[in-house]
From TrEMBL:
InterPro entries (UniProt xref): Biofilm_reg_signaling, EAL_dom, EAL_sf, GGDEF_dom, Nucleotide_cyclase, PAC, PAS, PAS-assoc_C
GO molecular function: cyclic-guanylate-specific phosphodiesterase activity
Domain PAC: 244-299
Cofactor(s) in the UniProt record: Mg(2+)
Biological process according to GO: cellular response to nitric oxide
UniProt domain EAL: residue ranges: 478-728
The protein's name in its UniProt record: cyclic-guanylate-specific phosphodiesterase
Domain GGDEF intervals: 331-469
């Protein structure tokens, strides 16, 4: 076929199609306008007649006016007829519905179900389902769809559908479901939730709220049902919170049937859909357990568990505040540091339980002795602190008030104590310092009061002493000396000097090692100044080890020369060194490293050291004795030695203290003591040596009394090791 012939054929087909479409549109228009009484539709089974007027007209009017959407589909699913309600549901003009495929408005998820429903439809049954149609504006239209096949005459092939719009029903169901869910949530929450109107009357309340108030709270004023108290004791008022426009929270207290509840109250606005204020939503959260836990934590953190008094941490906080207040107001305060005299003795003899009872009673007596606004604290052990505030503007006036309070405390604490059947007495030593208008650090205040307390103990105990600036100067000097002492250990500023020990013929038998401190600015520092400080601070441990190592090294050097190989060397050992658990091992290690002969080493111990834990003392001495180390009891006669202990100790020598030797020629008592010590030593099989021998007369008397060894200025002063042979 030529191209021109094909073009002619295509043009003819287009004209025929346009004519048919025009005829169909005209027919649809006539049907919609009611101009057609009946319609004949040709199909494969023959013609079908649809009557549109006459007997069916009333039904058509009824269908057009019904509230459900109605439609007739062809076998191919094309909409043959639809009423106006269906067009409204699909939000599309009616003329666009007729001739369209109904599945166009069935959502994708429901299309398979819809087709299955259509396949099951028959004239005798109605198939029903719920599905969602998608309107042209995109909104979903939930529908209840009823489908049956349509039979006109002998021909079956069309379908009659009725779509009931379920939008409002679904909306109502959603509202009811939301209401049920809200109620369920309301009753399942741990908080009490109350909804009030603008007059603070309760409109709704959760199950917890019902339980909390113990009655039906509805239609009642909130404050009557929940008589809450704020932290300051004022009654809680809902009106004070409901006009804020935002949620507010406050901790409150509720007493109910003898029980106390702590509630965190949260108040927020109840707002309508137009933004109008409808009332308030009140949430009450039970925080009773949390408050109890917080109080327990606070007790553990800030209070002493035994006495329930503020502890050191809380005291320091209050002291900071007191110092700031005194500085700002120029009013005086005071700090009293209280230490119980001989508390350790009571604790050791009667036991810690009795000691704890005493501390508890002391705490109560201190509380009863001061004003409510004053602070009583326990620092630990048997140490208490009283902080007084608002004592006037003049220091003299404040000091007078402190004296009055101090006297009251002394009287209270010296009264007898009944402690689990034990009748006990105790006395305090009190140190006091003023808190004035000039700011002083908390540490400084505590230091001053502590220093004054020790001054009270030095004054005989059971008394009160005020801080003295001279004491402060001494304290600062001690602090500086401690710092320099530590530096001396690091820098090696110590020397070991030696003082000769001789026999009855004046021959050198050995020496005593004496430590000296060669300070770079002060020169030689007397041992009496730094040895007690070293013992207090624990620095005696590294210092003592250095002395022992240096002395043993000297013994090893002497052993290399025949003329000095027989010399002994005495080394002083402090109580703190001797009580150290590793002391025996330390001595053994030093001897091994230095190569010194243990039999030439003599350790000098004091009486007071030996009397503390006698069993431990004997065990350590015996262990060292097994190595060959000898022992000398230094300063014998100045302490409180027990002869029964003395004979049990593995001693080698007694040393007569220089305080007896000094006046041995002029004081008969000293002379008698010296003779007794010599006789006692001989009876126990011990050697004896006298120290502090400065004159020939002293030497002669001691020699006549049986003493055969001497040490003192008569034979040489302490000095470098080279000076030993110049003396003897």
């Amino acid at each position: 076929m030529e191209q021109s012939d094909r073009d002619d054929t295509l043009a003819a087909e287009n004209r025929d199609l346009r004519a048919r479409l025009s005829e169909a549109e005209e027919t649809l228009r006539a049907i919609r306008n009611g101009e057609v009484d009946a319609l004949v539709v040709a199909g494969p089974g023959g013609d079908q007649v649809f009557t549109l007027r006459g007997a069916d007209y009333a039904y058509r009017v009824l269908v057009e006016e019904m509230s459900e959407g109605a439609l007739i589909l062809t076998a191919q699913g094309v909409i043959f007829y639809a009423n106006r309600r269906l067009a409204q549901m699909l939000k599309v003009p009616l003329q666009q519905v007729i001739g369209a495929s109904f599945e166009r408005w069935v959502t994708a998820v429901d299309q398979a179900l819809f087709r299955a429903l259509m396949n099951r439809a028959s004239p005798q049954t109605h198939q029903r389902m719920e599905l969602t149609l998608r309107a042209d504006d995109g909104t979903g239209v939930p529908c209840y769809l009823s489908v049956s096949s349509l039979q006109l005459g002998e021909v079956v092939g069309s379908f009659c559908l009725v779509a009931t719009d379920l939008t409002e029903q679904k909306r109502s169901e959603a509202i009811v479901a939301a209401e049920k869910l809200a109620r369920l949530i309301l009753d399942q929450t741990a908080e009490a939730i109350v909804v009030c109107d603008n007059d603070a009357r309760i409109m709704r309340a959760s199950e917890v709220a019902h339980t909390l108030c113990g009655e039906n709270p509805l239609e009642q004023p909130f404050e009557r049902v929940f008589p809450l108290q704020e932290a300051n004791g004022a009654p809680f008022s809902l009106a004070r919170f409901r006009n804020t426009g935002h949620r507010r929270r406050i901790e409150t207290r509720l007493e109910r049937q003898g029980a106390v509840f702590y509630l965190l109250v949260s108040v927020g606005p109840l707002v309508g859909s137009q933004g109008e204020r409808l009332g308030s939503v009140v949430i009450l959260t039970d925080i009773t357990q949390r408050k109890a836990a917080e109080e327990q934590i606070e007790q553990l953190a800030f209070y002493d568990p035994l006495t329930r008094l503020p502890n050191r941490r809380l005291l320091r906080d209050r002291l900071h505040q007191a110092v700031a207040t005194c500085t700002r107001t120029r009013r005086q305060g005071a700090l009293l540091f209280i230490d119980l005299d001989d508390f350790k003795t009571l604790n050791d003899t009667l036991g810690h339980d009795i000691g704890d009872l005493l501390l508890q009673q002391v705490a109560q007596r201190l509380i009863d002795s001061v004003r409510m606004r004053d602070t009583v604290a326990r620092l630990g052990g048997d140490e208490f602190v009283v902080m007084l505030e608002d004592l006037g503007t003049q220091p003299q006036e404040a000091a007078a008030q402190v004296q009055v309070v101090g006297a009251k405390v002394l009287t209270a604490l010296t009264q007898p104590y009944e402690l689990a059947g034990h009748h006990c007495h105790s006395t305090p030593s009190i140190g006091a310092t003023l808190i004035g208008e000039y700011p002083v650090s908390v540490d400084e205040l505590l230091k001053r009061a502590d220093l004054a307390m020790y001054q009270a103990k030095a004054a005989g105990r059971n008394t009160l002493r005020f801080f003295d600036p001279e004491m402060q100067a001494a304290l600062e000097a001690r602090t500086a000396l401690e710092s320099e002492l530590r530096e001396a250990l690091r820098e090696g500023q110590f020397l070991l000097w030696y003082q000769a020990q001789v026999d009855s013929e004046g021959r050198l038998t050995g020496a005593e090692a004496l430590v000296r401190w060669l300070h770079p600015r002060r020169g030689l520092v007397a041992p009496a100044r730094f040895i007690p400080l070293a013992e207090e601070t624990g620095l005696i441990l590294p210092l003592g080890r250095w002395v022992l190592e240096t002395a043993c090294s000297q013994l090893a050097r002497w052993a290399q020369r025949p003329q000095t190989a027989g010399l002994t060397l005495a080394v002083n050992v402090s109580a703190r060194e001797f009580r150290h658990p590793g002391f025996v091992a330390q001595v053994e290690a030093v001897l091994e490293v230095s190569g010194a002969d243990p039999h030439r080493l003599k350790l000098e111990l004091t009486e007071s050291l030996l009397l503390e834990d006698i069993a431990d003392t004997i065990a350590k001495m015996t262990a060292l004795k097994a190595l060959g180390v000898g022992f000398s009891l230094d300063d014998f006669g100045t302490g409180y030695s027990s002869l029964s202990y003395l004979k049990r100790l593995p001693l080698d020598q007694l040393k007569i203290d220089q305080s007896f030797v000094r006046d041995v020629l002029t004081d008969p008592n000293d002379a008698a003591i010296a003779r007794t010590i010599v006789a006692l030593a001989h009876s126990l099989g011990l050697a004896v040596i006298a120290e502090g021998v400065e004159t020939e007369g002293q030497r002669a008397f001691l020699l006549e009394s049986g003493c055969r060894a001497f040490q003192g200025y008569l034979f040489g002063r302490p000095g470098p090791v080279e000076g030993l042979w110049q003396c003897c």
